[in-house]
Amino acid sequence: MKILKYLIVAASLVCFSSAASACSPFNLILGWFTVTQPLEVVNNAASLPNGTLLAFVDLPYVTGGTGLDSCPGPITLDYTGTPGAFNTMNIGIPGIGGRIYSASSQYGMRTGYLPITGTVSVPNTSSAQWSWGGYYRLELVKTGTMYPGYYQLPTSWMALKINNAVVARMNISTASHSIPLPLEIKQSPTCSLSSSSIQASLGAVPARNFGGVGSTSPAVPFNIALRCSGGDAGVLSSIYVTLTDQRSPANVSDRLSLTAASTASGVAVQILNGTTVLKFGPDSNVPGNTNQWFAGESGNGSLTIPLTARYVKTATNVTPGTANAVATFTMSYQ
User: Fold this and answer.
1) Which spans are transmembrane here (predicted)?
2) For position 8, what pLDDT does the model report?
3) What number of CA atoms fall less than 13 Å from residue 171's CA on the CB side?
4) Per-residue pLDDT tens digits for 173-212
């Protein structure tokens, strides 16, 4: 998923008539800012848990404010839209919520995600000036299933409230005339095995060829061949893999257990990615799964993951016989 190239973002305070009879804004002061950095997120978030931060942009310091006439009560920065999960506002885009982080602590306000209420009230005198300023961050968060397509973010984000009455509002847009921010969600490819099973034959290895515990046989190469399709042109999937010991799924070591039908003992199997001996983990595609490793990136087309396998001596004595092992692997697109 990728937000369209360069964004010109403007923020302004828009005055609202207050429902509170004892509070009214005046002398509105406008502020605006420009963001030119591109926003990018992972191309395929299918395996990412809800609550994952997809993209963010830090908004430059904006000065502005609004005059407030006789407005006692706490100051609150809140969203203008419907609250959602993970401190987000419902922005009308399936699977994505938006939230604002405030790094400013003026007027007794703590830092954190909106809504934020200050501990200092606007003075109950005429012509009080509430200065709008600070550093903010706009974040997009995964809240559910996302769908490819072109969208627009809402222009209205932040509200200034006195006693829950909205007296000013901050708009975010691509220009100073409330043009919505564009959002493009692209589809990343997914991959499947070119063959339903993968064989790695280690051949006959004489027991006398092993040295002490931890010694190994020569490594034998094999490949995991994938076919990847269904993605938009130019979009890549980052593919992570977890190998799981079929006989002992809780195994998180770098030694694959022999099958129950094996007659040999004193050895196990190791799988290597280059010079790295891979460890095994639970059968899960959740990002950050135990012993998950990066296998490569792929667009539409083929991806070959080269691996090697070898025996490793695990006991002082090795009993000759058949020595077979089975591992499964689970892919995670991130």
Assistant:
1) none
2) 37
3) 17
4) 777 667 777 888 888 888 888 887 888 899 999 999 999 9
Pick from 194, 218, 192: nearest CA to 205: 218
Label each residue of the chain as H, E or C.
CECCCCCCCEEEEEECCCCCCCCEEEEEECCCCCCCCCCECCCCCCCCCCCCEEEEEEEEEEEEEEEEECCCCEEEEEECCCECCCCCEEEEECCEEEEEEECCCHHHCCCEECCEEEEEECCCCCCEEEEEEEEEEEEEEECCCCCCEEEECCCEEEEEEECCEEEEEEEEECCCCCCCCEEEECCCCEEEECCCCCCCCCCCCCHHHCCCCCCECCCEEEEEEEEEECCCCCCCEEEEEEEEECCCCCCCCCCECCCCCCCCECEEEEEEECCEECCCCCCCCCCCCCCCEEEEEECCEEEEEEEEEEEEECCCCCECCCCCCCEEEEEEEC
Q: Report in angstroms the alpha-carbon separations of 22 from 19, 70, 71, 239.
A: 9, 6, 6, 59
* Neighbour tally for 188: CB within 10 Å: 24
Q: Provide the whole-model pTM.
A: 0.65
* Residue whose pair of structure tokens reads 């942009």 in the numeric block: 57
Beta-ladder partners of 158: 79, 170
The tokens of 172 are what?
């975010």
Q: How does pLDDT run across 120-139, given as a tens digit for each residue?
A: 555 545 555 555 567 889 99
Q: Which of 156, 239, 150 is nearest to 193 (CA)?
A: 239
